[in-house]
């Protein structure tokens, strides 16, 4: 919330300063200024507006770099979580004793592919894919895709993305 207030303040300062410069130019061009101001006052106003624009630019740059760093940290965390999730998948597949073909099918099933899509991706028949998914469900101790997904979603919700801890928890669940 504090960051939003700072960005709003930056925008207001820059807008006020820009309006000053633009209105001053327009008033001079159109000739609407009725009473001239002293050159000292004019210089002070211009210096203040210039400082405001510079300050807004510097603060805007700081806010941008802060946001950029946050985005990179979030991407790094996402990559770490994604890598940990893939390790968790590999560990589960190993625990269940899935064959290489079953691992591929399980991964496609977890990604949400239909049996037809999996068959097309693997260049096999739908019957073969259906038999492989049934073998996966049997080895995982579940009755279908929703329960298979549930095993992994449960690990995500409990924060068990580290393979060592997740493996222990899964062993306890399966016992």
From TrEMBL:
Q: Does the keyword Lipid biosynthesis apply?
A: no
Name the GO terms of the biological process aspect.
regulation of DNA-templated transcription
Q: Which organism does this record belong to?
A: Ruegeria pomeroyi
What phylogenetic lineage does the species belong to?
Bacteria, Pseudomonadati, Pseudomonadota, Alphaproteobacteria, Rhodobacterales
Q: Which residues form the HTH luxR-type domain?
A: 95-152
One GO term in the molecular function aspect is: DNA binding
Q: Where are the transmembrane segments?
A: 7-32, 44-64
InterPro entries for the chain: Sig_transdc_resp-reg_C-effctor, Tscrpt_reg_LuxR_C, WH-like_DNA-bd_sf
Identification of the protein by name? Helix-turn-helix transcriptional regulator
Please indicate which superkingdom the organism of origin belongs to. Answer: Bacteria
Q: Does the keyword field hold Transmembrane helix? A: yes
Which terms are listed as keywords in the entry?
Membrane, Transmembrane, Transmembrane helix
Pfam families given in the database record: GerE
């Amino acid at each position: 919330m504090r960051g939003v207030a700072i960005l709003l303040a930056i925008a207001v300062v820059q807008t006020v300063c820009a309006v000053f410069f633009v209105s001053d130019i327009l008033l001079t061009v159109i000739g609407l200024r009725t009473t001239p101001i002293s050159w000292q006052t004019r210089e002070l106003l211009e210096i203040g507006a210039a400082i405001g624009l510079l300050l807004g630019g510097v603060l805007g740059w700081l806010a941008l770099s802060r946001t950029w760093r946050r985005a990179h940290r979030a991407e790094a965390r996402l990559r770490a979580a994604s890598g940990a999730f893939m390790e968790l998948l590999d560990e589960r597949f190993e625990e269940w004793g899935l064959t290489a073909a079953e691992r591929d099918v399980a991964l496609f099933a977890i990604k949400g592919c239909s049996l037809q899509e999996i068959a097309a991706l693997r260049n096999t028949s739908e019957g073969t894919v259906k038999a492989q998914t049934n073998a996966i469900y049997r080895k995982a101790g579940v009755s279908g895709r929703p329960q298979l997904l549930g095993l992994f979603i449960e690990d995500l919700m409990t924060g068990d993305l580290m393979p060592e801890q997740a493996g222990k928890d899964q062993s306890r669940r399966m016992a």
